[in-house]
Design goal:
Length: about 110
């Protein structure tokens, strides 16, 4: 139910951006970064790194989709939409780069 409402933009643009796209995503980012450095030191963290990275990637893609949906139904000041779209483009480019990096890392 939470995921369905999120993907449809039901939480509004500001809550989707700040809560789901920033506050919740920040710990995921910290974990992935920590494990990416830890993998250089200890190979036993590889499985945890892979799982954390995949969860982070999936969550980040879901939030990006939710931000697009929230932007479509947003009825406030248009400046927020104008500011959001470059961020979304950068998020999508980041997803592509992360996916390519992850696949090359796994090989």
């Amino acid at each position: 139910m939470l995921l369905k409402k999120l993907i449809k933009g039901g939480y509004g643009l500001s809550k989707t951006f700040w809560v789901f796209g920033f506050l919740i995503q920040l710990p995921f980012y910290a974990l992935v970064t920590t494990f990416s450095y830890a993998k250089l030191l200890v190979a036993s963290h590889l499985a945890l790194f892979v799982i954390t990275s995949l969860l982070y990637f999936v969550y980040s893609v879901v939030v990006t989709i939710a931000l697009f949906a929230a932007a479509r139904i947003y009825e406030g000041h248009k400046i927020w939409i104008i500011l959001l779209y470059p961020i979304l483009v950068l998020r999508i480019l980041g997803h592509v780069i992360n996916a390519v990096s992850f696949v090359s890392f796994i090989r």
